[in-house]
Amino acid sequence: MEVNSINPASPATRPMQSAKKLLFIAHAPSENTKRMAEAVIAGATNSDIANVNVRCLAPLETQPDDIISANAIIIGTTENLGYMAGLIKDVFDRCYYPCLEKTQGMPFAFYVRAGHDGTGTRRAIESITTGLRWRLVQEPLICRGEFKEEFIAQCENLGLTMAASLEAGII
Ligand SMILES: Cc1cc2nc3c(=O)[nH]c(=O)nc-3n(C[C@H](O)[C@H](O)[C@H](O)COP(=O)(O)O)c2cc1C
Fold first, then answer.
1. Could you give phi then psi for residue 111, rounded to 5 degrees?
2. What is the pLDDT of residues 36-86, one digit of tens each?
3. Ligand 1 test: best mutation among 30, 78, 121, 152, most atoms within 8 Å of CB?
4. Does 84 sit in the ligand 1 pocket, CB within 6 Å?
5. Atom of ligand 1 nearest to the CA of 83
6. CA dist 108 → 32, 97, 148 (Å)
7. What pTM did the predictor assign?
8. What separation in Å is there between the alpha carbon of 18 and the centre of ligand 1?
């Protein structure tokens, strides 16, 4: 018999769930992309969200254990020469095999800041993460063309949605 399904503990006696970990790997080489990364963090750390621990790392700081210990991931990259930024590719190069058996099903989302395209980066990230068997839980956000203020709101919404979904247990 599942005792908890008949007589659930009251909120006061229910054990505190440990905070879920949202890892944000942010490549932000320009003023605009820094603002976009800050917007993701602002959304993910919205005061309405409890029990989600948000950690932002630069690509070079990101180690396999950071990914393995996360409950969900956001990746932010520029598009350079038709592909994801080299530093984001380096994260995958270093972390792919150490993570492969340990992060299957990882919920993730990503955004691309692309001066004029973004499709090569989107395709590459989707391909590598398919190999990792990660789960893309939001439509990729491609911030294309001349910089627009709406990119900031879109990034904030991305961070907020990921953190809220993690908190709600729906990703
Ligand atoms: C060397 C270099 C290569 C680039 N290649 C591409 C590209 O292939 N596709 C694209 O959409 N944008 C490309 N861009 C534009 C960058 O994605 C864009 O400048 C970057 O995301 C920073 O955005 P910001 O200018 O709004 O700060 C390139 C930029 C540089 C410096």
1. -130, 155
2. 999 999 999 999 999 999 999 999 999 999 999 999 999 999 999 999 999
3. 78
4. no
5. 8
6. 23, 18, 24
7. 0.92
8. 39
Torsion sign (Cα): 90, 93, 96, 98 = negative
The kind and range of the H/E element at 109 are strand 107-114
Q: Pick from 33, 34, 75, 80 the residue to mutate for probing ligand 1's pocket: most ligand atoms within 8 Å of its CB.
A: 80
d(CA 122, CA 110): 9
Element (H, E) at 3: helix 3-6
pLDDT, tens digit, for every residue of 124-165? Answer: 999 999 999 999 999 999 999 999 999 999 999 999 999 999
* Contact assessment for residue 134 and residue 108, using Cβ atoms and an 8 Å cutoff: yes
